[in-house]
Give the backbone structure.
Amino acid sequence: MKIDNLLKLSKKNKDTKSKVCVIALTYNRPDYIKRSFDSLYKRAGCEFDHYVFDDKSNRSTQILLRSLKKKYGFNLYFNKERMGIFKSFYWNLKYVPLEYDYYVKLDSDIEVLSDNLFNEMIECFKYPEKISAVTPRTEGIRNIDRYDSVMQFYGGHTIKDEAPIVYGCCMMFSDTVFRTFRRLKDKELENTIEKWGIDSILYDHAKRMGKFLIIEDLSVYHIDNTYGQRKNNNYYFTDRKRWNIIDNDEVWYIKASKSVYPKFLNRSVFDKMRKVSINFENFLENCLAFLKNQPIRTEKEFKKEVEKRKKIQVNKQIAYMKTMYKITSPNNFTPDLNMKHGDSKLFADVPIWAKNNPRLVIEKVEVEKTHIEAVEEVKDEETVKEEKPTELLKTEEKEKSEKKKKIKRTKKKKRKKKIVVRKCRECDYTTTSLKRLKTHKIKKHG
C-alpha cells in the first residue's frame, strides 16, 4: 500500500505542471534576438509565458520582434522613450502578473544550448537547503571560473552552491523571491541615474533569501562571447558607457588594431595613447603617429585642431550653400505678365509681384554658390531686364528720364554762370552782347 501511495504522489507531481514566466529586455541587435528566441522555444522543455520589453530599438529590430511575436505568440511591449536596462526593467514589471511558480530573467543575447532546460532547472529547487535562484553555466563569458568552489551532486546534476554574479544572463527565481523584490515608484525611477543592469540587484536580493545555485551540466551561450560582441557591435557598448575599460577602452583597441593591421601595437602602447586621447579619432591618430615616429597630439592640441576644423567647415557651408526662392510659371497655369510661361527662375528674396500670386509656384531651395555664380555670369543685361516686372521697368525708365533732365538743367545753369557782363566806359549802360555795346557807343557817343 505504501508503494502504491508513493506512485500516486509521483504521478500527481508529474501532472501538476509548474507555471513559468520568462522576462526578456531587448534593444537593437536583431540577429542576437532571433537566435535567442528560436533556441528558447526549441529547448525550454515546458510551456511558459514570455514577456518581451523593447527599449525603443531601431526599425529593423522592431519589425523582427513583430514577426517573432506572430510566430511564437509572446507578449510584446515597446517603450515610448529610451530608458536603459535598469529603468526599462522596473518600469515594465507592472505588466508581469504575480501568478507564476518560477520567473526567468533571460538576456536577449543568450542562446539556449541544453535541451529541456527549464524542467532541469526546476528540479534543482528541491535541493536540501533553501534555494532562492538557479542558473545554468554560461559559455562565452570572460573570467568564467574566477570564483572556484566545491562541486556538489544532486539528482544527477553537478552543482556549485554559490553562483558568481557573472552568471546573470539566465536566472530562474522562485515565486517568493520575485514577489518580495522591491519595486520602484514612478518618482524614484525618474530621479535615478543608474547606468548598470538589473542583474546585481536581483542577485543580491536572491542571496539574502537563500542559496543561489549554478548547474554545471546545463549550458547557455553568450552569443559571440564577451569580445566578439564588442568587435561586431561596438557602438552598442560605447553608447551605454557602463564599463570604462571593456566597454570603451578595449573597444577602441579592437578598432584601432584593425585599422593599423598588419602592424602590431603592444597593449602598453594602447594604454599610453588612451591616456592622452580625448576621443577615438584622436586615439587612432596618435596610434598611427606612434607607428610613424611622429609627435603625438595631447587633448588640448586635439581640441584646438577640432575647433579649427569646425570653423572651416562652417565657413565652407556658408560659402557653398545658399537659400534661394525658385519661382515657376507652370504650363498648366494661366500665364503671368512678369514671367515667361513655363519658365522658372531663382531669386534671393520673393519679389512683391510673386507673393500670393495664384499664377506662380514658389519653392524654397538650397542652391550651390558655384551654380548661382555660373547663372549670374551667363545672364546679360537683357535677361536681367526680363526678370524684372513691367511696373518696375516703367518706374526705372521714369527715374532715368528725370535724371537726364536734371543733368541738362545743371549744364544750362553752368553756362549761365559763364556769361560776361559788358559795361560802357562813358556811361552806366551794361549788356552781355558785344554788338549791342558797339551800336550803343555809335548812337550815343559817336
